[in-house]
Design goal:
about 425 residues, 10 helices, alpha/beta, globular
């Protein structure tokens, strides 16, 4: 496979960039693997990568029903952060942030990790107190957090609407290590790294059924025939309920559409990530100049990758309330992804009641920023057949046991998480 360097760049420049080799192989599936991962998105690819790198398990196949990276890994707003408060969430997302910080050196690929800071605005005294509490919880666990007042925020972003009668800005919670990453480059980097370690990445291979005998996984029926395996990991995001149903499992998950948007290219305007505290709106600026922003899910169950106009209006209203100048900016394009919304807003990384079957699902809004830690922990769980302490709180049976991880305090209402 092609190795990238200044010399390969010069060589291919002279050939008009017509001699580049593929970044990963296009193998035909074998009859059997030690591990099969269903889902060629960020979580599936990172799981395969860490299975090979951390545990020496290379007889692995990643099965993707479409082309690699066609799902939510390429349909998100690229934000990374670890500004969580609750036990279970805080150490997990901080581990993910630490993996992000060394990711490009780890898999030798430029994923454009940019720690440009994440600022959450607050608009009431109660919200400021809640942010202070979250910031203190973060700092107790060694995570960076700064509580800013309105003057500090205005020095960073003077164009915000500080005198809005309904939503006055009173300050914000800042994590300087947060930022953005080129989402599709994450998929490419993990795919290339896994492939170099012997993992088979099989595209256009739809899983149609899961074979189970005497309570144990035997393999999967696919559009390319039956493929056997000793262990099977499901990492299919918004389609998790459908794939789990093939094994007779019913998950505490609903699927909803989340829309995101990109504006026309602008001169440098927003140098970090800013979120609206009086509604659900978040915005950053890409290296191409477009403002990348999003908000709430559409609020009804759907497997469509398109949204509706009322939610477009809702999101942009929140954006204009925070930054009035956005009213003059034209939206260039939008897209939708399928969110696997769990009942408490937190993910599931666990073994199942079926021997050899493992589940990675329920990521709600938080899937992209969790990509490295999700794959790392899922690989550990599959390889060791036990949970790591970082994902021990993300057990599937926590809903039955009453150990929910409700970061937003919304209860069992997936559309609010």
């Amino acid at each position: 496979m092609m190795k990238y360097s200044v010399f390969s760049l010069l060589k291919n420049t002279l050939s008009g960039h017509t001699k580049w080799q593929p970044a990963w192989r296009e193998p035909e599936p074998r009859k059997e693997y030690d591990v099969i991962i269903v889902g060629g998105g960020g979580h599936g690819l990172s799981t395969a990568y860490y299975l090979a790198k951390e545990h020496g398990i290379t007889n692995v196949a990643v099965l993707e029903q479409s082309w690699l990276g066609s799902g939510n890994i390429g349909r998100n707003t690229t934000i990374i952060r670890s500004n969580y408060m609750l036990p279970g969430n805080n150490p997990f997302y901080e581990w993910s942030m630490k993996l992000w910080e060394g990711l490009e050196q780890d898999f030798k690929f430029n994923a454009m990790v940019s720690q440009r800071r994440v600022l959450n605005l607050c608009h009431t005294d109660a919200q400021r107190d809640a942010f202070a509490r979250r910031g203190n919880a973060m700092r107790i666990d060694g995570v960076d957090a700064e509580l800013l007042d309105a003057h500090d925020v205005k020095a960073m972003y003077p164009f915000l609407d500080f005198n809005n009668a309904r939503f006055p800005i009173k300050g914000g919670l800042l994590q300087r290590r947060g930022g953005t990453v080129r989402h599709d480059a994450v998929a490419w980097g993990y795919a290339r790294g896994a492939d170099m370690r012997g993992v088979d990445i099989i595209q256009n291979c739809e899983v149609k059924g899961i074979r189970i005998e005497n309570g144990r996984v035997l393999g999967v029926d696919t559009s390319k025939g039956f493929i056997g395996c000793r262990k099977l990991g499901l990492a299919t995001a918004g389609n998790s309920s459908e794939t789990a149903a093939m094994a007779g499992l019913r998950l505490p998950i609903e699927s909803h559409v989340l829309q995101a948007f990109v504006s026309e290219g602008l001169k440098p305007y927003i140098d970090g990530v800013v979120t609206f505290g009086a509604g659900h709106f978040y915005v950053s600026q890409s290296d191409k100049g477009g403002l990348v922003f999003g908000g709430d899910i559409d609020g009804y169950n759907s497997y469509a990758r398109r949204g509706n106009l009322p939610m477009v209006e809702h999101v942009i209203e929140a954006g204009v309330a925070m930054i009035p100048a956005l009213a003059r900016v034209r939206v260039l394009r939008s897209w939708g992804g399928i969110m696997d919304m769990s009942m408490d807003g937190s993910p599931i990384i666990d073994k199942t009641s079926i021997e050899g079957l493992y589940l990675n699902a329920g990521w709600c809004y938080g899937g992209f920023k969790a990509t490295p830690a999700s794959g790392w922990c899922f690989a550990y769980t599959i390889a060791k057949n036990e949970l790591h302490e970082l994902n021990a709180a993300y057990r599937l049976d926590r809903f039955r046991r009453g150990y929910m991880i409700d970061e937003k305090g919304q209860g069992a209402t997936p559309n609010l998480h």
